[in-house]
Every structure is written in C-alpha cells, then in structure tokens.
Design goal:
Layout: H1 2-19, H2 27-45, H3 48-61, H4 70-90
Length: 92
C-alpha cells in the first residue's frame, strides 16, 4: 500500500545516509534525499515528528553545501518552508 511505500523509501534513504558518513562526498545529497522523503511522509501522514526531523536535517545540511551550488540553492529555499511547517506542526 501507499504507507508501505513511504516506509520503504524512508528506510532506504536512512540506509543510504548511514553508508555515506559525514566526510563522504555524497553525504549532503543523502541528507537532502532524506529530508525530501520525510517531507513526503509529513504530507501523507501529517506527523509532526517527520517534519521536525526534516527541519533538523536541513540545519545539518545547509552548512555542508558550498555557496553557489545547486544543492545549496534548493536546500536554502526548501528550508524556509520546512521550518514554517515544523513550527505549525509543533504549535497546533
């Protein structure tokens, strides 16, 4: 079912992140992918924990992205909306 797909995707992205530790060149991309799937989870299940974890991961991700890169521009743009969603989820 649909929730199983969400669970599978989240698990796969968590595993990918675990295989790419902090100094791995694709660590930032793995962080970004996990934030995206957590946001998808939040949009489907409306659980505050998912969006709060995504917000936390964006705080970790942004300093790892070099200025002027595509990943930094999309991460910075998404972070603002994720922070708003996280605030709303916490205070609802």
């Amino acid at each position: 079912g649909h929730l199983q797909d969400i669970h599978t995707a989240t698990s796969l992205f968590r595993n990918a992140l675990a295989l790419r530790p902090q100094r791995h060149p694709n660590h930032p991309l793995s962080l970004y992918n996990l934030t995206e799937v957590l946001t998808w989870c939040y949009n489907k299940k409306d659980t505050a924990a998912d969006i709060c974890e995504a917000a936390q991961l964006y705080h970790e991700l942004l300093p790892l992205c070099l200025k002027g890169t595509y990943l930094r521009s999309i991460a910075a743009g998404h972070m603002v909306s994720i922070m708003r969603l996280a605030d709303a989820a916490i205070f609802q």
